[in-house]
Amino acid sequence: MEGPLFHIDELRQFPLMSCLPESQLQRMARGAADLHVNTDEWLIREGEEPWFFMLISGGLDLWKTFAGKPQKVNTYKPGDFFGEVPLLLGSLAFAGARASEPSRVMKIDRVLFKELLDSSKDCRALVMETMTKRLNMLQDRIVDIPVARVLVI
User: What's the CA gap between 114 and 127, in Å, rounded?
Assistant: First the structure.
């Protein structure tokens, strides 16, 4: 039998994982995919099937297309998680994530993500608080986009 892809002590250092009970932390260590992404490589692109991710090491930039122009909207550092918005809203990925340096990422499927939310009130609160901030940031950006208008006479 293979061991876990992630070491529990490695995961426990991150706020999202530190609030999980030991049994769920072990499930995350065994069940999540361990991805390695090179500089400038896309982890996920806008419009793709969503996943939940947590950055273990390296750096990622989040890119979103506004009015046909891709814009960098966020930078992630180790311990940051993302992908909760489309998973919770049942949509495709709202944005793309691209490595700014060689990076290691924990990739979590829908089932394990739901277990994460169900297993800890503190983890669920952290995910929901983060999701609210991201939706507010997206709303602020959308409001700033000029709308083209055509007058037909």
Answer: 11
The whole-model pTM stands at 0.84
Pairing of strands 33-37, 42-44: unpaired
Contact between 53 and 83 under an 8 Å Cβ cutoff? The reply is yes
- What is the SS3 string spanning the chain? CCCCCCCHHHHHCCHHHHCCCHHHHHHHHHHCEEEEECCCCEEECCCCCCCEEEEEEEEEEEEEEECCEEEEEEEECCCCEECHHHHHHCCCCCCEEEEEEEEEEEEECHHHHHHHHHHCHHHHHHHHHHHHHHHHHHHHHHHCCCCCCCCCC
pLDDT digit string (tens) for the chain, length 153 residues: 344 589 999 999 999 999 999 999 999 999 999 999 999 999 999 999 999 999 999 999 999 998 889 999 999 999 999 999 899 889 999 899 999 999 999 999 999 999 999 999 999 999 999 888 877 777 766 656 555 555 666
